[in-house]
Amino acid sequence: MTAITEFPPKLIEYPEADGLPMAESDQTRDYLVYATKVLSVFFEHRVDVYTSGNLFIYYEQGNPEAVVAPDVFVVFGVENRQRRIYKVWEEGDRTPNFVLEITSKTTRSKDQGAKKGIYAFLGVEEYYQYDPTGDYLTPPLQGLRLVDGNYTPVSTTTLPDGTIVLASAILGLELHLKGQAMRFYDPATQQYLLTHEEEASARQTAEERAQRLAAKLRELNVDSDAL
């Protein structure tokens, strides 16, 4: 009798990177970091919301080629913890609810073509694109909302100062475009979202302003007492 040798199943690797250098403009990098940080801060007290960016999302078990890496994304209904990669089948089949791509000359065709199709297939409810330089998108900030499997444009409003506003129903936030600058705005607090570093800087500026005002008032009191 011929013995049958059983081999263990081949281990499928899901790389954490594609080995290609990340060549990004200053504007692309700055806004990618800004958006990821402020959304992480906004949802940091939610244990069931995961925010990340430039992370590989594998959406088909056994097929490492079925992968996409949004610049910024938010997933509701999964644990808020750090990950090296995101495997949809290990996350209760939860896919991103919100995606933001910081588009550029080199990514424009993918952002508007292949990625758009993948995001619709994955059920990404809101897909935003932002062109910091204003060279490739008109207008530079655009939003799409998934309706019956197809993307439809998110309506915009314009404030008296010219700021263009797009409301994200998924995040409960607004995306504001003033000139070429994009910021997230919380209508509940009527404040723009800040990173921890920006919050610390704002507090320091306020404290320094208060100290200067207090010193000025002390000077005025001294001058008044001298009269």
Query: Percent helix among the residues?
Result: 25-40%
Strand content is 25-35%
Q: What oligomerization state is this entry in?
A: single chain
Strand order of the largest sheet: 1-4-6-7-8-9
What best-fitting shape do the alpha-carbon axes yield? globular
Summarize the helix and strand pattern as letters. Answer: HEEEEEEHHEEEEEEEEH
- The Cα radius of gyration reads 23 Å
Mean pLDDT: 85
Largest β-sheet summary: 6 strands, mixed
- Count helical runs: 4
CATH architecture assignment name of the largest domain = Alpha-Beta Complex
CATH class of the largest domain: Alpha Beta
Structural class: alpha+beta
Task: Based on the model shown, name its key terms.
227 residues, alpha+beta, tt1808, chain A, six-stranded mixed β-sheet, five-stranded antiparallel β-sheet, 4 helices, 27% helix
